[in-house]
Amino acid sequence: MNLHDVLISPMMTEKTEALKSPSENVNRYTVKVRTDANKELIRQALHKIYRVDAVKINIINVRGKTKRFRQDHFRSPSWKKAIVTLSRGQKVDFGKSA
């Protein structure tokens, strides 16, 4: 698997921005990843693409929601997200890769 394909997109929401608390000096980023990615692949992809060292990685499997349109029921696809804690002083700029 190509390491550039492991990270799909960063998640920029109010909840994920609250994880970055400047008072505690904690750098946490939330990233949408492939469903078959594991912690080691995510760590390698972050190091190769952005040149940062991940101290801790938490992975969450998000189940797809069931939607309804008239009599039909649809299920949005399930996906996986990773909450990555970086070592002190490191930052990720998702706009550009190294």
What's the topology here?
Blueprint: E1 7-10, H1 14-18, E2 27-33, H2 39-50, E3 54-62, E4 66-69, E5 72-75, E6 79-86
Antiparallel strand pairs: 1-2, 2-6, 3-6, 4-5
Give a description of the structure:
This protein has 98 residues and is α+β, with helices and mostly antiparallel strands. The protein has a single domain (3-86), classed as Alpha-Beta Plaits, CATH 3.30.70.330. Helices cover 17% and strands 37% of the residues. It has two helices and six strands. The protein has helices spanning 14-18, 39-50, and strands spanning 7-10, 27-33, 54-62, 66-69, 72-75, 79-86. The strands form two sheets. A four-stranded antiparallel sheet has the order 1-2-6-3, with helices on one face. The model has no long low-confidence stretch (mean pLDDT 89).
Number of domains: 1
Q: Biggest β-sheet, characterized?
A: 4 strands, antiparallel
Strand coverage percent = 35-45%
CATH topology: Alpha-Beta Plaits
Structural class category: alpha+beta
Give the uncertain stretches in residue-range form.
none
H/E topology pattern: EHEHEEEE
Radius of gyration: 15 Å
Instruction: Report the helical percentage.
Output: 10-25%
The count of β-strands is 6
Q: How would you state the average pLDDT, rounded?
A: 89
